[in-house]
DNA sequence: TAATACCCGACTAAATTACTTGGTTTTATA
DNA sequence: TATAAAACCAAGTAATTTAGTCGGGTATTA
């Protein structure tokens, strides 16, 4: 388990999807505009998220992405795993090339530690993140802007 | 809070110090040999660990590093913080340049999340790591090697 | 006085990250 | 049926980070 900015991008994008994807699919262009992540980079992330069965896609105009499952069933650890494609962590993969046996010692420990972090992040769902108070207030701000959002989007495209 | 290989190196090295540093200070050359981390890289890490008041140094022959505190008082989060020098995480540091207010939304969330991870790692001490069963068995292996360790070290130097 | 080992800064190769470019399909809709 | 919106795809690239090297120091002690 690594914890990089790429993972943050992915969680951010999935959270955007969780907030805005109630009825219709959400286009990457929308997420790109809101979260200021480059479109092509999002495409690469979502290719991985799709392979990880976390989102489904709808092609053609009006298309976009949907969460593959309900928000309480998608967990932060899954998102990070999907985009980070597991590092094997140890250079002594399996057995054999550990020089003393001591090398493996801390390797196992670190592995154990990252498993604990993984377990921790496996308990936090998108639903929980969305339900936090600070999100709620920000979302109400956003829906206040809702009426003029389309206009703004068009204006921003030019 | 990031979770990179550099953090792993630091935790590994500190754990090595916790295991081998009971009586005399431990030289970086020893840690380098046992954990297979380059000496100069270790020097850079320990410079940061020293600045972070996690270790103290003893110069001259027979010198090395000691833990600055007892093992139950040194926590994994501190080690990672010391070597990773906090990323400011958000590009909208403070207020102002967030375009919609929505940008900050997920930024705050991610920050919140990494604080939770930080809190989690703040509860795991070096003592706890050392006391785990898999470490214990590995340590007994190591002390079985203890009688010939000096010979081996000299042989390895050549 | 010489060996040990910390200390320090600059430089470098390799890897990773974030992004760009330039396409191709698919599909709603005008 | 033409068009445009969108997902999809692959290759390349600039910037950053990581891990390591190199070449000097300086303090301590056998």
Protein topology:
2 copies of one chain form a homodimer.
Chain A: H1 5-20, H2 28-35, H3 39-51, E1 55-58, E2 64-67, H4 76-84, H5 102-121, H6 126-130, H7 133-144, H8 149-157
Antiparallel strand pairs in A: 1-2
Helix pairs in contact in A: 1-3, 1-4
Chain A binds a DNA duplex (30 and 30 nucleotides) through helix 1 and helix 3.
Description:
Two copies of one chain form a homodimer. The C terminus of chain A is likely disordered. Helix content of chain A is 58%, strand content 5%. A two-stranded antiparallel sheet of chain A has the order 1-2. Chain A is elongated, with a radius of gyration of 19 Å. Chain A contains eight helices and two strands; from the N terminus they run αααββααααα. In chain A, a hairpin with a 5-residue loop joins strand 1 and strand 2. With 158 residues, chain A is mainly α. Chains A and B meet through helix 1, helix 5 and helix 7 of A and helix 1, helix 5 and helix 7 of B. The first copy, chain A, binds a DNA duplex (30 and 30 nucleotides) through helix 1 and helix 3.
Q: What is the N-to-C order of secondary-structure elements of chain A (H for helix, E for strand)?
A: HHHEEHHHHH
Relative strand content of chain A: 5-15%
> What would you report as the Rg of chain A, rounded to the nearest angstrom?
19 Å
As an assembly, this protein is homodimer
> How many extended strands of chain A?
2
Query: Structural class per helix/strand content of chain A?
Result: mainly alpha
Strand arrangement, largest sheet of chain A? 1-2
- Main β-sheet of chain A: number of strands, strand sense, barrel status? 2 strands, antiparallel
Q: What helical percentage do the residues of chain A reach? A: 55-70%
Q: Give the CA-CA distance, first to last residue of chain A.
A: 41 Å
Largest interface: A-B, 42 and 44 residues
Poorly predicted runs of chain A are 93-97, 139-158
> What characteristic shape of chain A results from the CA principal axes?
elongated
Number of helices of chain A: 8
């Amino acid at each position: 388990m690594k914890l990089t900015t790429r993972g943050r991008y992915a969680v951010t994008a999935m959270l955007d999807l969780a907030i805005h994807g109630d009825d219709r699919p959400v286009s990457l262009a929308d997420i790109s505009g809101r979260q200021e992540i480059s479109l092509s980079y999002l495409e690469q992330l979502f290719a991985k998220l799709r392979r990880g069965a976390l989102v489904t896609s709808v092609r053609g105009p009006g298309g976009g992405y949907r969460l593959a499952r309900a928000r309480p069933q998608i967990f932060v650890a899954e998102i990070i795993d999907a985009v980070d494609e597991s590092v094997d962590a140890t250079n002594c993969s399996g057995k054999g090339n550990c020089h003393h046996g001591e090398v493996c010692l801390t390797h196992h420990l670190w592995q154990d530690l990252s498993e604990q972090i993984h377990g921790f992040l496996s308990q936090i769902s998108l639903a929980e993140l969305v339900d936090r108070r600070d999100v709620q207030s920000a979302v109400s701000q956003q829906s206040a802007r809702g009426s003029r959002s389309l206009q703004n989007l068009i204006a921003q495209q030019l």
